[in-house]
Amino acid sequence: MANVSRLDTLLNALQKFYGALPAPPRDPFTLFVWEVLSVHSTPRKRDAALVALKRIRALTPDAMWRAAQAKLEASVALAGPYTEQRLRALRTGVDLFRRSPELPALIKGPLPAARRALKPFPQLGDAGAHRMLLFAADHPILPVDARVNRVGLRLGYGERKTARTVQTGLARELPPAVDAFRRAFQYLSHHGAATCTESDPHCHICPLVSECPEGKKRTGGRPGD
Ligand code: SF4
Fold first, then answer.
1. Which helix (H) or strand (E) holds 28?
2. pLDDT (tens digit, 9 = 90+) per residue, 106-138?
3. Ligand 1 pocket, 169 CB below 6 A?
4. Does 6-21+142-218 match 28-136 in CATH topology?
5. Which CATH architecture has domain 6-21+142-218?
6. Best substitution site from 209, 218, 225 to test ligand 1's pocket, by max atoms within 8 Å of Cβ?
7. 209: Cβ below 6 Å to ligand 1?
8. Domain-by-domain residue ranges, the chain?
9. Does residue 140 contact residue 157 with C-beta atoms inside 8 Å?
10. Using one digit for the tens of pLDDT, what is the confidence trace for 33-90?
11. Is the terminal CB of the chain with fewer CB neighbours within 10 Å at N or C?
12. Does any ligand 1 atom lie closer than 6 A to the CB of residue 171?
């Protein structure tokens, strides 16, 4: 029987607790748009904006380039504030995708070149670039955003408060398979948003409390308190 890591056990518990979760888009351009819409937004508003962009058929670099400005603006505004900044980031991204039609293939290739190709993209940052490599380019890399970092640290992964040590600690317990990395990111990040929140984690309802050093501290070691 295959060895089951501690992380596997934790992820199984989260999967049972939350059920199926929606995954980020797999198409590189749509995922870039998703990233731009996600900043300072909520999943509901971001998805509404993405659906509106799909409805006006603006989800390819060329189509967004040609889209009527007013329609584009109205769709992007559904994500919440910062419409101007989002439109600017989208224009830059459209430009980069149109100038490099080989980009989707490039990011699926060797990692150093893939990382270099993503560097010029506005609003991606480390976690966004890693999400792109994982979801749109099939690289087994764990994106560590603020939520994954927080949950990882509370569960005892990583020694210092840097994304790199948490990433190493978590990735060490994952099989080298893209699907395993995708599942880990989705459930840890969702858990950080829904239950293991920054200022007030809901340890008393958390399915991981019996395995969590921070949760035990906060509940006095009594799961369910
Ligand atoms: S027990 Fe508390 S600190 Fe630990 S993962 Fe759950 S919510 Fe976060």
1. helix 28-38
2. 999 999 999 999 999 877 889 999 999 999 999
3. no
4. no
5. Orthogonal Bundle (1.10)
6. 209
7. yes
8. 6-21+142-218, 28-136
9. no
10. 999 999 999 999 999 999 999 999 999 999 999 999 999 999 999 999 999 999 999 9
11. N
12. no
